[in-house]
Amino acid sequence: MANEATMHLQHSESVVAQMAATIFSGLAQGQAAAALNDDELIERSLAIAIKMALRAEKLVNSDEEWVRKDRGSAYLAG
Fold first, then answer.
1. Residue 7 pLDDT more than 80?
2. Residue 26 within a domain
3. Which alpha helices (H) appear in the chain, and where do they start and end?
């Protein structure tokens, strides 16, 4: 395997990569594939996945954002 690549992705990076792969699959099956090559589809898929992840980050609070570190109880931030 001459073109073997090793990666150490953070969890959030792997989630975005998985989202991009799903988006890529949908685009490749649709009409967009006729007008774009693989590299363009990859770039478009990643851009959409990153946009979705950033928007979700704004709108969704994780468990860690709701738990008070000093007491372990939930609270409303802000």
1. yes
2. yes
3. 11-29, 32-35, 38-59, 63-66
* Domain containing residue 48: 12-66
Buried b (16+ CB within 10 A) or exposed e, 18-32: ebbeebbeebeeeee
Instruction: Tell me the pLDDT of the chain averaged across its residues.
Output: 81
**pLDDT (tens digit, 9 = 90+) per residue, 43-66?**
999 999 999 999 998 888 776 666
Give pTM, 2 decimals: 0.67
Q: In this structure, is residue 4 part of a structural domain?
A: no
Q: Taking the CA atoms of 73, 13, 18 and 31 in sequence, report the sign of the dihedral they define.
A: positive
Sign of CA dihedral 61, 63, 64, 66: positive
d(CA 2, CA 13) in angstroms, rounded, equals 25
Per the structure, the count of domains in the chain is 1
